[in-house]
Amino acid sequence: MGEQQLDHEVLIIGAGFGGIGAGIEFKRLGINNIAIIEREDDLGGTWHVNHYPGLAVDIASVTYSYSFEPNPHWSRLFAPGSELKAYAEHVADKYDLRRHMEFGIVVEGAEWNDEAGFWTVRFDNGQTRTSRYLVTATGFLSQPHIPDFPGLNDFQGDVLHTTKWEDGYDFTGKKAAVIGTGATAVQLIPEIAETADDLTVFQRTAIWVVPKVDFAIPSAVQKAFQKVPFTQKIARAVNTSMLEVLMVGGVLHYKQLKAGNKLAAEASKAYLKRAVKDPVTRRALTPTYDFGCKRPTFSNKYFQAFNKPNVKLETGGIGHFTPTGIVTGEGTEVEIDTLVLATGFNLWDVNFPAFTITGREGRDLGKWWREGRFQAYEGITVPQFPNFLTLNSPYSYSGLSYFTTIEGQMKHIGRLFGEMRRRGTDRFEVSEEANAKFLDKVTGDLDSSVFYAGDCSTSRSYYFNQHGEATLLRPSATLTTLREQGSFPLEDYQYA
Ligand code: NAP
């Protein structure tokens, strides 16, 4: 098929910060025949989907943003979710990406045509599109998980999943239950506790929580960020370095720096002791696994909510639902009007990848990952999948801010496409050898991490896949990731 007959040069799936970053990079490379397909009705990814009360970033906003697109207007050190959504819109407009976006389309599958060298992508509306390059930017935490609780369908009260929040839902006078105590619940529980008559929090696994040093950014600082952008760069560098110490020291080099990790755990326990009055509740809120096995959370209100007379922590598990409530695993009946499912996301069964992707010689990416090992060269390309870039990949997530991952991947795309241009070719595929070498390196490096050298046995962390392997994080410092993504050996790819 000739170039002019393809629908698109690049098809990007997902209009969150990953898809937006990829779009910016392709435009920078002078590629403009791009379509960005999004299943939701607007851009912003997780920041469009999530709008539950209390939503805010938990990485300071000077870091949680594109380094090349600083926003001097963040209202707080940790901006509320609505500002992230507005920031996504601003960036999409500034880089003229909106006209490439098509909303409300679910991608059902993609197949590589090896002879002609293009992808055919099937949509749920019956359409198919062809493109030379396919980029999946479907996110890590984008397939909501609703557990199969016995009798859930019989429950007659209101049911809210945190990703499908009913704005303005009023908890006044309600008896509510929240299932889950992950980062989402940690933000949401204090908000519900303010108004609900009764709130029962169903915790299966306790989470490490540390205080959130948050404040409104004074207008003088906002002005300085605006007039002298270098000042914001410094703020970003300082904050990113602090996060690096936490991530690289506390999580990735656990084996060598165990004391730092234990210190973080002790600090969290001391905070819990100060914050929660009742010793039984306190004990139940204390994690039994190492700090960092699961993403720790930041809050000044979560622990404190359990001191309120209307809030109860329930650790008896979910037995079954009745039309009017929940019977715990220990047989206690909890009557409720409203159920909040803060039960997170399914990463490993339905999200890697988010739809069927078939490469060369019929290799099915999802099957290949699940039946073999989860892997992706530099967290972005896969052997036997020519002209395919997968942004939400095994071993791709670097640092604590997602923007490090995206910007590293943008560098990778820039280097790869620059080389293709130099060679006058339009086809790339990573070699099996380069991919295997990268897999060996990351898995070897992860041996020192808390995931393998620490005790994560009771954590039920989504960092681990169904085979018990921690295949989400790239075990490198932020700067190392950025350097490696901009300098990988070009001969790791076959061209044309
Ligand atoms: P999550 O961390 O996966 O938490 C889900 C919660 O639901 C866990 O407490 C889990 O318990 C519980 N759960 C799931 N299935 C259950 C079952 N069958 N029975 C009982 N409990 C069950 O999901 P999340 O809280 O939505 O957070 C996901 C990630 O999103 C975070 O780690 C973070 O990276 C990100 N996030 C970021 C922000 C932010 O930046 N502001 C805010 C929210 C979320 P178990 O632990 O026992 O499985």
Descriptive account of the structure:
The protein is of the alpha/beta class. Helices cover 32% and strands 17% of the residues. The protein is built from 14 helices and 20 strands. Strands 1, 2, 3, 4, 5, 6, 17 and 18 form an eight-stranded mixed beta sheet that branches. Strands 7-16-8-9-12 form a five-stranded parallel beta sheet, covered by helices on one side. The chain has a three-stranded antiparallel beta sheet with strand order 13-14-15, with no helix packed on it. α11 (402-423) packs parallel to α14 (478-485). The protein is globular, with a radius of gyration of 23 Å. The mean pLDDT is 96.
Helix and strand layout, with pairings?
Layout: E1 8-13, H1 17-28, E2 34-37, H2 46-49, H3 81-94, E3 101-102, E4 107-113, E5 118-123, E6 128-136, E7 158-161, E8 175-179, H4 183-195, E9 198-202, E10 209-210, H5 219-227, H6 229-252, H7 258-275, H8 279-284, E11 297-298, H9 302-305, E12 311-314, E13 318-322, E14 325-328, E15 333-335, E16 338-341, E17 356-358, H10 365-371, E18 388-390, H11 402-423, E19 428-430, H12 432-446, H13 450-453, H14 478-485, E20 493-495
Parallel strand pairs: 1-2, 1-6, 2-3, 4-17, 6-18, 7-16, 8-9, 8-16, 9-12, 10-11
Antiparallel strand pairs: 4-5, 5-6, 13-14, 14-15, 19-20
Helix pairs in contact: 1-11, 5-6, 6-7, 11-14
The structure holds NADP nicotinamide-adenine-dinucleotide phosphate.
